[in-house]
């Protein structure tokens, strides 16, 4: 490896995008991941995740000879710059983010890295983590003068490559100015385009990441509560959202009412922030309330479905359209759709699901994954739209009218076309709206 090369450790949703993105700038990137199956796929140019544009970008990087893959960190032994993007999942015991993957990765890097190498933490980590890692490196490898830099990631799944190439800001935290500078240089192209760069200490940069996610989760939770109100008092939640979102102080994004936030980040990061607050005696009351409201939302949805189905789900068949936590991704981590599938099965319902890309590994007599919307709807007493995939927006439910047991849709994403001719023949209930009965 040449000394101007970069090593990315942990090539999941974040690391792989980072690696492919940096390679597209002409930088030479070595990717290291513990998972041999993932590395094997990547070597063959096959992305282990579903993400728009990723396959093409990966193949280009391979063809240009700018990206390599390994399960062995020693193969990246001369890199002056490392990016670490390993998972930091919730600890069941503490509620905080687990750091064992990160600590193992940083120890592995420190053992092989050349002197003065920079280890950049892209993983989302509890405030104080980077300072603690720096202290550990200074103690265990004093002769190497290794530097930790915090560089949180803000990409969204489903638009990850687009977000990598169009960041709204770059945050670089670290005690060492030359180390921050080295990370900053790898993003030079963005800065030339006017993307703001925030340089700070690591406490600030780690807090920015948690505060951003907690704020967005709060915004979603706020509109969901207003949506509950609209369901009862009347009105249209999408118009309410538009009406407030046009106020530039509020902004239009993250005001789509739905089943509650999910995914691998918001639930984990809000919980971690609340835990960090408590640990430091500074309770984050807004975030704690947001978590509580969001957690109870799935129960609220289930109650509405139960009420519409005559209070008994046992023995009934439900079609669930969508499994991913949102559209355009295959990620099912903390997916509201998946939680609803589990809840329905627990209530004794039989569930058939369909998702264009996401797959579930649930083994249950009452559960079947289908290859088409029509197959999922076969014999259903309720059709639940759980993820906002484009094909559900345009689907003509005339095609399944004869196949279903009852023409009833519960739309958790407010995307089915209620103005379409077929919609008059169905009972349609949506988050944020009262039941619209079939008009014949
Ligand atoms: N997914 C997102 O949208 C997103 C966005 C911003 C930030 N983040 C944060 O980035 C981090 C990574 O998230 P992700 O979704 O990419 O996770 P992921 O689970 O998709 O990928 C993590 C990868 O790290 C590998 N790994 C674990 N320990 C390793 C080690 N010691 N050496 C080498 N590889 C190792 C795993 O095999 C896995 O492939 C998390 O902290 C997350 O909170 C995620
Ligand atoms: O108006 C909205 C917007 C989002 N959501 C839900 O909120 C969750 C998160 O959505 P989104 O933010 O689009 O997806 P993520 O890929 O989880 O991205 C978030 O989490 C990442 C990991 O930290 C950050 O990098 C991103 O900036 C941050 O948006 C999902 O369940 C969405 O369905 C809504 O219900 N209504």
From TrEMBL:
Keywords attached to this Swiss-Prot or TrEMBL record, sorted alphabetically, are: NAD, Oxidoreductase
Transmembrane spans: none
Name the chemical reaction catalysed here.
UDP-alpha-D-glucose + 2 NAD(+) + H2O = UDP-alpha-D-glucuronate + 2 NADH + 3 H(+)
Broadest EC class?
oxidoreductase
Please list the residue ranges annotated as the UDP-glucose/GDP-mannose dehydrogenase C-terminal domain: 319-418
The keyword Oxidoreductase appears for this protein: yes
Q: What is its EC number?
A: 1.1.1.22
Q: Which domain of life is it from?
A: Bacteria
Q: Which SMART domains match?
A: UDPG_MGDP_dh_C
For whether the record's keyword set contains Signal, the answer is no
Query: By its UniProt entry, which InterPro entries does this protein fall under?
Result: 6-PGluconate_DH-like_C_sf (IPR008927), NAD(P)-bd_dom_sf (IPR036291), UDP-Glc/GDP-Man (IPR017476), UDP-Glc/GDP-Man_DH_C (IPR014027), UDP-Glc/GDP-Man_DH_C_sf (IPR036220), UDP-Glc/GDP-Man_DH_dimer (IPR014026), UDP-Glc/GDP-Man_DH_N (IPR001732), UDPglc_DH_bac (IPR028357)
Q: Which pathway is recorded for this entry?
A: Nucleotide-sugar biosynthesis; UDP-alpha-D-glucuronate biosynthesis; UDP-alpha-D-glucuronate from UDP-alpha-D-glucose: step 1/1
**Sequence similarity:** Belongs to the UDP-glucose/GDP-mannose dehydrogenase family.
**NCBIfam families on file:** NDP-sugDHase
Protein name as annotated: UDP-glucose 6-dehydrogenase
> Species name for this entry?
Jiella sonneratiae
